[in-house]
Structure formats: structure tokens, C-alpha cells
Amino acid sequence: MRLAVPQPTHAPSSRVLRAGALIAAVLMSCDKSPFEPNGEGERVPVGPVIQDALASDSVKWYSFDASANERFAVFLEALQGHVLLAVYDSLQPSFPGPTLSADAGGPRLDDNATTPFGSGGRAVYRLRFQGFSADSTVRYRFKVYRINQAPEQAPESFSFGDTVAAETIDPMVDLDHFVAHGEAGQQIVTVLETQGASGNSAVYLSVVDRATSHFFGYVTAAASPLTTGRLRLPTTGDYDFRVSSVISNTFPLYRGPYRFWTYVVNPAPEHRPAALPFNTAITGERIDQAGDLDEYTFSAAAGADFVAFVQGGQRTFQLEVAPSGGEAIASTSSAPTDTALFMHGTNRFHIASAGTYVVRVTGSAPNDPADTGSYRTYLHAVDRRPEHVPAALTPGDTVSGEDIGIPGRYRRVHVHWLGRRGIRCVSPGTERIPRHASAARSPESCRNAHRGGPECRQRY
Confidence class of residue 202 from pLDDT cuts 50, 70 and 90? Predict the structure, then answer.
């Protein structure tokens, strides 16, 4: 028969001693914060404020662990003396990253931060602190801050044409990443402005292809809005719009509300047909928004010649001519002081291949929201034939009553045929031959010389 033997209810003395030692160690550890550094190069947590001291002219190291694609900043305040901070990636120990300094009585902790840093992979960052003080001790406090890269108030996703508002940069190292879907060939403009007291601070917005990380454009702005200018999207997909404070060695980082809005540029004229007639002044069209453009089209035969003109009001407008889908072959700009349509034209351009051509009118400062206004344009089809007299000449003929109507004012020209010696072109009422007469040219060249003004004598 088996009997159950009761077990002793007291623990062996050795076990009691070990338990007592553990309890004592825990009680002793409660006298010191677990977030205070306890050793050289100690791993510190992300988020809490850590206060420490070191001897003047000495160095202390700390470190923290970072996951892939995280961004960080380190805030620093000196409580006594002067302290320098340098951030190192443990995989590249010879190359310091962001640096920062602080003096006692200087910026408070939340107003003094490194530039944001991070990497695409997991990393360990080491923080090197060096102190300088007239006393023997330097005291300081710091905080490793993990940046939330998503907007805190506004939705992360938006559509072109939307206004993104009610978002803030806070703290000063904050990053806000938004995303919008775009179609290949779309042309967009983004306008950015701060909504708080910015002083000399500003915000920065960049546009990046999410799939390729290709950078397309940016804008920096303060209380007065500015734009990215017109950006053409190369592919269909998602595009990141990244907002942060402008980093400056002179001015503090911006902290406060901001907003931005986008719009898609329609290249077709908004107020009249896109087909451009020859020798007709085009009026009633305007650049409606910064970055807007108006594209007119015309068909041209091979061998044709043209001159295009543009005139605006108080703004400068640009005009260029290009084959459809090709590079510009002629361009010109108006001036705010223009008083007539024909004051600024392209050089005469020659059509080498028959096809469809584009006349494109834009403003000259697409980053300025005020770069708008009305303009006029004119496409002159050059006719080499005299408009008012027969083109055929016989030796001894005098031709008068003809003029070079575009560009410039009325000009009447006499042409005297001098046989094998050439031709002689003079303005009415004078037979004076200028000293600057050029070398031998064709009759057409001589005729064109009158477009500039003085009479000439040419030989060919």
C-alpha cells in the first residue's frame, strides 16, 4: 500500500537568498530612470527626453535602432556650457551625418533640432556628444524624435484640382507626404503658401514619382503664394507631394499651418478656336492662371515662310513655334512697353516639311501666381511677290508704290536696274548711298534691307 508523503512547505535557504537579492536589485534600480544613460555608447529609446552631463573637453556616445524608411531628428538643449552633437550611421562610421550645437541660455529643446535623417534599410545611429565649458562640467538634454511622415490632419490622398488645407508643420522637423494619381502627359501646377506668421521662415513642397523616386519639381513659399510652374507627368501612376519646413543656416524652421492647391493645365485656348488663321490678329484670349498655355495649330506646306508676333499688356508673354510633337523652330517675347502688335516677332522661319505646326503662347514667370493677362498674336504668311506692282522687271524700269508692310511702317522703294552691275535700292526722295553698304547680295536681300530702314546699294 502506497501512502502520499506531504512535501515541505518552506523553500530551501539558497532559493530564499536568491529571491531576496533579486528584489533588492529591483528596488535599487527604481532610484534611477531607465531612460538615463548608464554607459558608454548606451542604446537609448526614441521619444523620451534624456538628460546627462559630461566633463568639459570629453566625449560621450549613445545609439538607437531605426527601421527601414524611418526618418528622425535629434533635439538638443545645453543647460550648462557648450555641447556639440554629430550623428553617425554605424555602417559608415567615418562619415558624420547631421550636426548640431547648443549653448546654455540658447534655444530651448523644441526649438533646436538636427535636419531630418534616415535610410531605406534598417540602421543603428550613433550620437556623439562633445562638451566645452569654462567649468569642469557640461550639462545637456536631448531627445531622439521619430518623424511621422503622414499628414496629421488632412487626408493623405487627394485629386488634382483639390485644395489641401488644415495641415500643419509641427514640430519644426515635421514631414507630410501626400499622394495623387496622375495620367501620362498631364500638365499640372501646384500653388503653396503658409497660413501662419512665418517671418523669414518658409515651407517647401516637392513632387516625386512614387514608382521611380524621380524628382520633378518643387516650390518654396511663405505668406505670399508661389507655384511649381507647369510640370508634365511622364507616366500614369501615383505622385508624392512632400511638404516640410525649409532648412536654413540663417533662419529658423517654419512651424505652423499651410495649404496648397493644384490644377491641370488645358493647352487649348479657352476663349477662341485653336485653329490659327494666317494674317489675322487673334484677340480675346488670355493666360488665365500661372503656368497656363495656349496652343494654336496651323497647317503649312513645304517651302512656306512665316513670321509670328505677340503683344501683351503689363506682362511679358512668350511665343514659340514648333512642329506638332517637335522642338521649337522659332520664338519671341513681348515687352510690357509694347504699343503695337508688330513690335516683337520671330525671325522669319522656313517650313522644311509639310504638316501641322503649333504656335504656343505662355507667360514668362510661371512661378508667380500673378503671371496672367490678355495678349494678341498674329501669324504672318510671307508672300515673296510684290503686293502692288508686277514682279517682272526689264532693264531701265523704275518700280514705285511697293511697301514692306510687316513688320514696321510703310516703305516705298524705287528699284533701278543697272544691268550687269547689279541693282540699286533707294528710299524715295534721296539718291544717297550709305557707307555701310554690304557685300554682293541678291535682289531679294536688297529689298529686305529696307525693312530695317536706310537705303542701300548692293551688287550681286
Answer: very high
Instruction: Answer whether 0.85 is exceeded by the pTM.
Output: no
Strand partners of residue 259: 193
Read off φ and ψ for residue 343, nearest 5 degrees.
-80, -25
What separation, in Å, do the N-terminal and C-terminal C-alpha atoms of the chain show? Answer: 142
- What is the torsional sign of CA 403, 407, 409, 413? negative
User: Residue 273 contacts by C-beta under 8 Å, 6 or more apart in sequence?
Assistant: none
pLDDT > 90? residue 26: no
Cβ atoms of 288 and 270 closer than 8 Å: yes
Local structure of 422: helix, strand or coil: coil
Pairing between β-strand 317-323 and β-strand 330-333 as defined by DSSP bridges: antiparallel
CB 291 within 8 A of CB 271: no
Distance (Å, whole) CA 379 – CA 269: 16
What string of H, E and C letters represents the secondary structure of 25-55? Answer: HHHHHCCCCCCCCCCCCEECCCCCEEEEEEE
Which residues lie closer than 8 Å to 198 by C-beta, 6 or more apart? 222, 223, 254, 256
Q: DSSP letter string over 137-152?
A: EEEEEEEEEE---S-S
CATH class of domain segment(s) 42-146: mainly beta
**Residue 444 has what pLDDT?**
47
Domain parsing of the chain, residue ranges: 42-146, 163-264, 282-381, 398-458
CA distance 264 to 226: 16
User: Do 282-381 and 163-264 have the same topology in CATH?
Assistant: yes
User: Which DSSP symbol is given to 247?
Assistant: P
* CATH number given to 163-264: 2.60.120.380
Which residue in the block uniquely carries the three cell numbers 512668350? 318
CATH of region 282-381: 2.60.120.380
The answer to whether 220 touches 199, Cβ cutoff 8 Å, is: no
Helix (H, G, I), strand (E, B) or coil at 67: coil
Total residues belonging to the chain: 460
Tell me the C-alpha distance between 58 and 254, whole Å. 34
pLDDT single digits (tens) 50-76: 999 999 999 999 999 999 999 999 999
**The 3-state secondary structure of 164-200, one letter per residue:** EEEEEECCCCCEEEEEEEECCCCEEEEEEEECCCCCC
